[in-house]
């Protein structure tokens, strides 16, 4: 596989073309639903399907991605909560480091554990700095990673964390309010982070409406991720 996903995101970001990713959690979408779910995602003109969850059992993601591939050509990007979710059947992998946290397991251990699965794979590996922002809930990521989120008001720390991620060589920064967040990442935070980095910005967590989507784009998100709102209503129009 050539490096086409990251390039696509970088080029779109430069042109100001906004991208949409729908997040599917293999724990929450049944295999029998994949054909209809794929159609709906195509109707939404999503650019990517992210696949991942915090608690997905080993082996499930592999079967899930294989089934998705039967129904859609939209690029599938792994967004794993754990190295055991890596499957060669996807197109790309967000090689996440939880840089808002101070838990070595999610800063380097998980990444090392993934290497045996990645060494001979064709997956496009995309170094991604993952930053948790307080979205008003005790999200699955917070629970599993045993880390704390950065306050929505702490612009300075968020911006400095994003810049440090960029200096460390991350190719994408992902601002995450947590799946099912009460409050999505606020406008000011998105604007300030975007102003201070020259790599594309992904924003997700708690985005449920067209207005929230447009707002995230307007403030500088290059890719917006929607999971819960689509899970709750696959006929969602955004
Ligand atoms: C690099 C590799 C192979 C793995 C990275 C492992 C790391 C560092 C993960 C970051 C921390 C983490 C647990 C991220 C999970 C991201 C994710 C899939 C969130 C989606 O939300 P859900 O966990 O499904 O939440 P709900 O189930 O509550 O909706
Ligand atoms: O489920 P939602 O709240 O849309 O969040 C999407 C994604 O950013 C979660 O990791
Ligand atoms: Mg979820």
Automatic annotation (TrEMBL):
Keyword Lipid biosynthesis attributed: yes
E.C. number: 2.5.1.41
Catalytic activity: sn-glycerol 1-phosphate + (2E,6E,10E)-geranylgeranyl diphosphate = sn-3-O-(geranylgeranyl)glycerol 1-phosphate + diphosphate
Xref: InterPro entries: GGGP/HepGP_synthase_sf (IPR038597), GGGP_HepGP_synthase (IPR008205), GGGP_synth (IPR010946)
A GO BP annotation: glycerophospholipid biosynthetic process
Cofactor(s), by name: Mg(2+)
Residues engaged in binding Mg(2+): 25, 54
Gene3D superfamilies named in the record: FMN-linked oxidoreductases
GO cellular component terms, semicolon-separated: cytoplasm
tRNA processing is among the record's keywords: no
GO molecular function per UniProt: magnesium ion binding; phosphoglycerol geranylgeranyltransferase activity
Keywords: Lipid biosynthesis, Lipid metabolism, Magnesium, Metal-binding, Phospholipid biosynthesis, Phospholipid metabolism, Transferase
Positions of sn-glycerol 1-phosphate binding: 174-180, 205-206, 227-228
Family: Belongs to the GGGP/HepGP synthase family. Group II subfamily.
Function: Prenyltransferase that catalyzes the transfer of the geranylgeranyl moiety of geranylgeranyl diphosphate (GGPP) to the C3 hydroxyl of sn-glycerol-1-phosphate (G1P).
Name of the protein this chain belongs to: Geranylgeranylglyceryl phosphate synthase
